[in-house]
Amino acid sequence: MEVVSLRDLERIARERTARDMWDFIDGAAFDEISKRRNESKFEELTLNPSYLIDVANRDLSTTVLGENISFPVMIAPAGGQRQHHPKGELATSIGAGMADTLYALPTSSGYSIEEVAQVATGPLWFQLYHSDDEITEYLVKRAKLAGYSAICLTVDVPTYGAKEKDLRNDFKRIDNLHNGSLRDRPAYLKRKDVGPRDFADWETTGYSGLTWERLDWLKSLTSLPLVVKGIRTVRDAVMCAENGVDGIVVSNHGARQFDRTLSTIETLGSISKAVGDRLEIYLDSGIRRGSDVLMAMALGARGVFVGRPLFWGLSYGGAEGVKLMLDILKAEFDRALSYCGFRSVSEINRSSVNIPSNWSY
Ligand SMILES: Cc1cc2nc3c(=O)[nH]c(=O)nc-3n(C[C@H](O)[C@H](O)[C@H](O)COP(=O)(O)O)c2cc1C
After folding, report:
1. What number does the ligand 1 atom closest to the CA of 306 have?
2. What is the pLDDT of residues 200-253, one digit of tens each?
């Protein structure tokens, strides 16, 4: 069998991808210490199996902000998909739909909000980088009209994150493969802080006048629920709960923006303790196994997202490859659930995970 785990997909994708594109996808900020930490901290956790329980019938399904998904793994918003694969976000959204899960379309997608909505069969969120009030209003309204079910505002890019491999490779975006949703508004792309700037593109937008005080303005643009992505601290999670945010993604952007921060699995427990049921909590950054999914859920996540693995799936086989990547995670998660004695995701609880004593929980 050529592909058994996500690591097999990663190896094959690396072989098939041009070096500079690979570095763009795989790379992280500065010394990439947090990127390694994202995965290694999962390895410090252990699971407690529970036997002699009838787990013959297991239900992996759940809901996120009211949308049904077949298991609690979703596809994270990630720019560059169309430069990586000709079908880009179309293929990814189709693959997510085939696995009956949710796809979050990035602001900078090569295909437009509507083009993706036309082919997608599963629920969609629209990820927003706020660069300018007028553009945000334009995009948010289109997402609602096209049937997206939430706005996912990414907040962890106050300035451009230094991915040094991209700088060394002089990695260049191919402009017409990005920002498909603004193809009809070339003037917007020329604006300072918005327009294409080599590889960094939208990721350079940075601070642009959106603060906690102005979240109400963003919410007033749409009736869609608001998810805030990039939360790392109890303080910011509590601020989200107090400002009427519906969900948070505990994420460090796959360590692509800022190095030397804690991994997300380390911060999840204290965040979920602090905000509890006041909003839905999701996690990304470093999920590579079904057991990682179960651990995140045991520590308070309602679901998780994967970022880099979507590119591995695309390389391997477009939409089918994305579905295969998700199917592998689903089978692994199902197995972990059965060994821990759970019949459904609602039964998962903290007692199934051992947390090292030096973690600050
Ligand atoms: C190539 C690439 C591009 C990304 N672009 C975006 C983006 O445009 N917006 C965003 O919110 N997150 C972006 N991310 C971060 C992902 O949404 C997610 O937080 C991260 O990939 C999760 O970590 P993982 O790759 O270890 O699964 C990107 C990630 C990758 C790998």
Report:
1. 27
2. 444 445 567 789 999 999 999 999 999 999 999 999 999 999 999 999 999 999
* 54 found inside a domain: no
In tens, the pLDDT along 145-157 reads 999 999 999 999 8
> How far away, in angstroms, is 83 Cα from ligand 1 center?
15
Number of domains in the chain: 1
Structural domain includes residue 344: no
Q: Measuring CA to CA, how many Å separate 19 from each of 81, 95, 169, 313?
A: 16, 25, 9, 17
What separation in Å is there between the alpha carbon of 252 and the centre of ligand 1? 9
Whether 264 is in a domain gets the answer yes
Listed residue (361, 167, 163) closest to 271, CA to CA: 361
Range of the domain at 194: 6-44+73-332
The predicted model scores a pTM of 0.97
Any idea what the CATH number is for the domain that residue 206 is in? 3.20.20.70
Catalytic residue list contains 130: no
Three-state DSSP state, 136: helix
278: Cβ contacts below 8 Å, ≥ 6 apart:
241
Protein residue with its CA nearest to atom 14 in ligand 1: 78
CA of 82 to the centre of ligand 1 (A): 14
